[in-house]
Amino acid sequence: MPDRHLRPSSGWIEVICGSMFSGKTEELLRRLRRAIIARQKVQLFKPLVDNRYGLRTVASHNGMKMEGQVIQNAQDLLQNIRADTTVVAIDEVQFFDTDIVQVCSDLAHRGLRVIVAGLDLDFRGEPFGPMPILMAQAESVDKLHAICMKCGGEASRTQRLIDNRPAFYEDPVVMIGASETYEARCRACHEVPHKP
Ligand SMILES: [Zn+2]
């Protein structure tokens, strides 16, 4: 990314999206590291997903790590922003409801640089939560790609596998007693049986 990101004249929103294993968190942490080198005051947040509050490590698949603060919702984020913060980053932003869009927009209006990373599509290949609106309102959107585990092409989608078979469109989000895995796939190799 060009250095304009280091010295924003006013606030804005950057979206980093793509399938699982596309390097979104790695890219988010890379931008944060550069902002820290530029002496910006940075805060990193992540959603509460498994009832563990407090500071949690945000780690990328390639081993990069940073401490992030766990928050429950968009209001929670607003309440935790420090007065001197200039860069706000959110990982796994797809898990928030659409209230997060207004909060990101308010922060950008206040002059902050907001960087969010998340899955643009769910395992069904459909837009994930607040992502489409965030992508529309952002000044910058980067769509990263993984490698398709079937054909080696550019993967844009996340394949959900339950007991090693493609998950059905209508399968519940939590499958008790089943072994669930995910892999990156391209459009042609992505399988969603029973998709209407
Ligand atoms: Zn493929």
Please specify the SSE layout and strand pairing.
Blueprint: E1 12-18, H1 24-37, E2 42-47, E3 55-59, E4 65-71, H2 74-80, E5 87-90, H3 99-109, E6 113-119, H4 131-137, E7 140-144, E8 146-147, E9 154-155, E10 157-162, E11 165-166, E12 180-185
Parallel strand pairs: 1-6, 1-7, 2-4, 2-5, 5-6
Antiparallel strand pairs: 3-4, 8-9, 10-11, 10-12
Residues 148, 150-151, 153, 185-186, 188-189 line the site of zinc ion (ZN).
Content-based structural category: alpha/beta
Main sheet: which strands, in order across? 3-4-2-5-6-1-7
Q: What string, H for helix and E for strand, traces the elements in order?
A: EHEEEHEHEHEEEEEE
Give a list of the ligands.
zinc ion
Number of strands: 12
Oligomer: single chain
Query: How many H/I helices?
Result: 4
> What is the CATH topology classification name of the largest domain?
Rossmann fold
Radius of gyration: 17 Å
User: β content, as a range?
Assistant: 25-35%
CATH class of the largest domain: Alpha Beta
**Superfamily (CATH H level) name of the largest domain:** P-loop containing nucleotide triphosphate hydrolases
Helical content, roughly? Answer: 10-25%
Q: Mean pLDDT score, rounded?
A: 92
- Number of folding domains? 2
Major sheet attributes:
7 strands, mixed
Name the poorly predicted regions.
none
Specify the overall morphology: globular
- Calculate the terminal CA-CA distance, rounded to whole Å: 39 Å
Name the CATH architecture of the largest domain: 3-Layer(aba) Sandwich
